[in-house]
Amino acid sequence: MKSFRKELVIHYPRRRGYLNLTPQVEAALAESGIREGLLLCNAMHITASVFINDDEAGLHSDFEEFLERLAPELPHEQYHHNGFEDNADAHLKRQIMGRGVVVAVTDGKLDFGPWEQIFYGEFDGLRNKRVLIKIIGD
Amino acid sequence: MKSFRKELVIHYPRRRGYLNLTPQVEAALAESGIREGLLLCNAMHITASVFINDDEAGLHSDFEEFLERLAPELPHEQYHHNGFEDNADAHLKRQIMGRGVVVAVTDGKLDFGPWEQIFYGEFDGLRNKRVLIKIIGD
Amino acid sequence: MKSFRKELVIHYPRRRGYLNLTPQVEAALAESGIREGLLLCNAMHITASVFINDDEAGLHSDFEEFLERLAPELPHEQYHHNGFEDNADAHLKRQIMGRGVVVAVTDGKLDFGPWEQIFYGEFDGLRNKRVLIKIIGD
């Protein structure tokens, strides 16, 4: 069994938004040389997500409105966590969107359906954060 | 390390609903001959989910009402994604329910608790969709 | 490829709450002897979750309020599932928080960011429940 590990560093220029990581994940998979196995891609921070959905800007606006409806940022003082912090909403939004994804690796490629793309979801940006890619297989 | 891959094709006859995939996943595991490892089962489409919960029709009605409350289908024009599409709600519902599951394989079986069953959740049906099963192990 | 399996038994003394499982998962990983691979940790019951977030009591109070807003326990009779049961809300809360997590194993350690901790989320407690740890790798 082979294993491969890579970190991506992300600095998102606003508090919230989405980045398509698929090209970077594909590059890591190619670098690994693994042809058959499983690939884990996860946010290493608990106010961010890695998830799979559509690369469509309108949908990302819908995610923003949906998450703000379910776990609004403001007022900050509505949350117990926000004594010294202001990011409780980001911890909640991350639970809805998920920490990460496991993707099948087949014939050296991400084994995806027609529209699947891997996204980083930032809910408390404006600072460096990391994404982990771990691949195991042969 | 062995690996095994199988696709299931699903055509759900309504826009939304749930299908128990457990027998098909168990059959794929038996076919693989893998006794110890991890099994990934995921929707290959971004308006559907694979998740683990109870095989109980009342609960599935509760899922429908819960998801319609958090991300209602109508009116379609409430969503930015719905310029040429009408399925933004399905992309949101899928985020709550998840893309897929990873299940332990022990002694050649799905290593499940007493009530765990694998479900396909369709949120934009009436057309062919695929589910991926990938198993790695020995 | 090596594989390792362990069950944790949990008896949470209230209907809902959170337990930090990280020390027990780290102990299982050390016991396994696996240095590179993937670790799955999941609830074996469908009214509980295993997820990764912050070890901060204020945030856990925020989770409680958030989940009660999205899927309130009471009145029990609002749910179709609650004919003979009273825990439909727990099945829904578990979908938001997730069934389990997959964690990279690197150099014999959980490959975590600075604040990641593994939690058990109980939504229908007061009885014995199990958590599964499965590790594969070398």
Notes on the structure:
- The structure is a homotrimer of 138-residue chains.
- Helix content of chain A is 25%, strand content 38%.
- Chain A is built from three helices and eight strands; from the N terminus they run ββαββααββββ.
- Chain A has helices at residues 22-32, 57-70, 88-97, and strands spanning 2-11, 17-20, 37-43, 48-53, 100-106, 109-110, 117-122, 128-137.
- Chain A has a five-stranded antiparallel sheet, covered by helices on one side.
- The radius of gyration of chain A is 16 Å and the shape is elongated.
- The mean pLDDT of chain A is 98.
- The A-B interface holds A 1, 36-38, 51-54, 56-59, 61-63, 66, 70, 96-98, 101-104, 106, 111-116, 136-138 and B 1, 3, 5, 38, 40, 42-46, 70-71, 79-83, 88, 91-92, 94-96, 98-100, 102, 130, 132, 134, 136.
Average of per-residue pLDDT values of chain A: 98
Quaternary state of this entry equals homotrimer
Q: Which strand order do you get reading across the main beta sheet of chain A? A: 1-8-3-5-6
As a percent range, the share of helical residues of chain A equals: 25-40%
Order of helices and strands of chain A: EEHEEHHEEEE
Number of H/I helices of chain A: 3
Q: How many E strands of chain A?
A: 8
Task: State the largest interface.
Answer: A-B, 34 and 31 residues
